């Protein structure tokens, strides 16, 4: 029996009053984890020249912009999120000239470039932290508790596990919400504000199109640094406001950066990596005078289930509409288990991607998801470099430290020393069989995940109804999500079984082969299809 997908009273969503067109409102932005993308000099570590050499691939894939993870001078205690000099490129990744050449080449091929900025903390090798006088004012030092000051100043835990404080030789303590090599900056100090404005200007002058702002919810701490009063605080991140995250004071910083961004032509954007407890709290970061986008981690963490997905989609659209911002969607990044593994199967991952690319707003892709790469779970302990890995032993909370599993260098060729990643090895071992998932192996194979992404991105470009704009839900059988965009219907079967239904239009693209006979169609389990209406 076939079921009707059409509802006479669709629920409508719009992204609110548009403050004006902007390229980012429906952009597909591809995250390049520089260290693992392409290695031009055979040292086993990806670099900026490697990215430049692969720009034609990204252009052909059909994305609008790249986001480059930190490539600044850094001891690499946390994959470069421990910055020692914000105005120079780490020799591991190249030189400032290479960064300049990459930005120019990307622009020449019509791709925009966003770079990562890390304002919550620096490296402990940053000149400010190495100078005892400067350090006292520009970081967060406090006396300890206990009779001899031998206890940390409060009960805060590091996101990577263990106390968020480290004691110095002088006997006082400094705050680090992440690794001890990443001391938190004191944003009550005007010098810190001035320095970050100068850093933003430095890169804007070099031509970048915007910034992904690392830990954008972290710079301001609650006055007095009060105790939280419970353990396992990392499990609370994103579900409730903590005295070190999502404090109202961060918004003044974002507002000042928006003024700075607007003073440059060409629509330069700010994107918040902010873990906020609700979509409404997250929307505060994208008010008209703040940042342009915020990552939608509620979508990333949603269960593969009709009601859960619909709820998070509705809540995300409503929250961003209330401030006139576009919604963003993301399924994978360098900090989480790849969605081909997290969702339980490649079929679901492919369906989830088509769902994401049919929703209104902007979408973020993480390198390698277009190859359907799974999480690498079998890495030897000695190869792992995630700082949370060594800190997690015996800890009850904190990140699990397994983020290297999504950071394994990309396979470009079916064989060779590092499957075309470079002429040498690769800084994390690639699994045997990785060549079968390579760009070369998938190119031209219509059933491959790479060709699915290419087809979806080409359609998204060709169909003006996709991207930013209206959507309305349609009634659908249990376990099936169906919604209309101008000219397109998207259907997603979140169940594991085939569901017969009346085809809502002409089939455009499906995440798995889909039988259609006249008006009768069958949507296989864990599949998504786009239809022209
Ligand atoms: C962000 C980054 C993550 C890093 C952390 C500390 O969450 O995405 O990789 O470890 O900030 O900078």
Write up what this structure looks like.
The protein is an alpha/beta fold. The chain is built from 15 helices and 22 strands. It has helices at residues 48-53, 55-61, 96-108, 127-130, 132-138, 190-205, 250-262, 279-283, 297-300, 306-321, 339-342, 346-358, 387-391, 439-442, 449-462; strands at 11-13, 28-32, 65-68, 72-73, 85-89, 112-117, 141-142, 165-167, 173-175, 210-213, 269-272, 293-294, 328-330, 362-366, 471-473, 480-485, 488-493, 499-502, 506-510, 516-517, 520-523, 527-532. An eight-stranded parallel β-sheet has the order 12-11-10-6-3-2-14-13. The chain has a six-stranded antiparallel β-sheet with strand order 1-15-16-17-22-19. A hairpin with a 6-residue loop joins strand 15 and strand 16 (480-485). Helix 6 (190-205) packs parallel to helix 7 (250-262) and helix 12 runs parallel beside helix 15. The longest helix has 16 residues, at 190-205. Alpha-D-glucopyranose binds next to loops.
- Strand order, largest beta sheet: 12-11-10-6-3-2-14-13
Strand-residue fraction? 15-25%
User: Based on DSSP secondary structure assignment, what is the total number of beta strands?
Assistant: 22
Secondary-structure-based class equals alpha/beta
Distinct small molecules: alpha-D-glucopyranose
- DSSP helical segment count: 15
Report low-confidence residues grouped into runs of 5 or more.
1-19
Measured as a percent range, the helix fraction is: 10-25%
How far is it from the N-terminal to the C-terminal residue, by CA? Answer: 22 Å
Provide mean pLDDT, rounded.
93
Largest sheet properties:
8 strands, parallel
Form type: globular
């Amino acid at each position: 029996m076939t079921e009707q997908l059409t509802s006479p009273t669709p629920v409508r969503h719009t992204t609110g009053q548009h403050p004006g067109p902007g390229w980012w409102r429906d952009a597909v932005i591809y995250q390049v984890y520089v260290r693992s993308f392409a290695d031009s000099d055979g040292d086993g570590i990806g670099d900026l020249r490697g990215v430049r050499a692969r720009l034609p691939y990204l252009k052909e894939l059909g994305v609008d912009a790249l986001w480059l993870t930190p490539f600044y001078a850094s001891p690499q205690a946390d994959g470069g999120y421990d910055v020692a000099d914000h105005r120079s490129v780490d020799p591991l990744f190249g030189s400032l000239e290479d960064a300049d050449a990459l930005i120019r080449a990307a622009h020449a091929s019509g791709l925009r470039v966003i770079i990562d900025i890390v304002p919550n903390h620096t490296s402990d090798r940053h000149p400010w932290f190495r100078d005892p006088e400067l350090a006292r004012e520009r970081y967060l030092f406090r006396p300890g508790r206990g009779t001899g000051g031998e206890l940390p100043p409060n009960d805060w835990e590091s996101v990577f596990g263990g106390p968020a404080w480290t004691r110095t030789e002088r006997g006082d303590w400094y705050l680090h919400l992440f690794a001890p090599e990443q001391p938190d900056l004191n944003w009550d100090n005007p010098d810190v504000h001035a320095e970050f404005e100068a850093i933003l200007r430095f890169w804007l002058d070099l031509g970048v199109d915007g910034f992904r702002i690392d830990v954008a919810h972290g710079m301001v701490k609650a006055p007095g640094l009060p105790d939280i009063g419970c353990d396992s605080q990392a499990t609370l991140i994103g579900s409730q406001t903590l005295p070190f995250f999502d404090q109202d004071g961060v918004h003044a910083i974002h507002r000042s950066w928006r003024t700075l961004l607007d003073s440059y032509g060409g629509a330069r954007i700010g994107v918040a990596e902010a873990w906020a407890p609700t979509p409404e709290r997250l929307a505060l970061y994208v008010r008209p005078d703040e940042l342009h986008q915020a990552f939608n981690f509620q979508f990333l963490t949603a269960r593969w289930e009709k009601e859960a997905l619909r709820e998070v989609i509705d809540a995300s659209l409503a929250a961003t509409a209330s401030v006139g911002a576009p919604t963003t969607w993301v399924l994978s990044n360098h900090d989480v288990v790849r969605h081909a593994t997290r969702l339980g199967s490649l079929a679901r991952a492919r369906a989830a991607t088509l769902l994401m690319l049919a929703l209104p707003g902007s979408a973020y892709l993480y390198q390698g998801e277009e190859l359907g790469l799974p999480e690498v779970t079998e890495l030897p302990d000695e190869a792992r470099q995630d700082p949370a890995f060594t800190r997690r032993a015996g800890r009850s909370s904190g990140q699990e430290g397994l983020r290297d599993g999504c950071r394994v260098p990309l396979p470009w060729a079916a064989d060779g020393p590092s499957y075309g990643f470079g002429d040498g090895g690769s800084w994390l071992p690639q699994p045997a069989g990785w060549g079968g998932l390579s760009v070369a192996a998938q190119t031209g194979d219509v059933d491959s995940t790479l060709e699915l992404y290419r087809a979806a991105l080409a359609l998204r470009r060709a169909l003006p109804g996709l991207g930013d704009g209206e959507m309305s839900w349609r009634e659908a059988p249990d376990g099936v999500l169906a919604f209309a965009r101008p000219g397109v219907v998207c259907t997603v079967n979140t169940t594991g079984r085939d569901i017969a239904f009346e085809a809502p239009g002409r089939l455009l693209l499906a995440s798995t082969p889909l039988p259609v006979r006249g008006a009768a169609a069958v949507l296989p389990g864990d599949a998504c299809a786009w239809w022209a209406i």
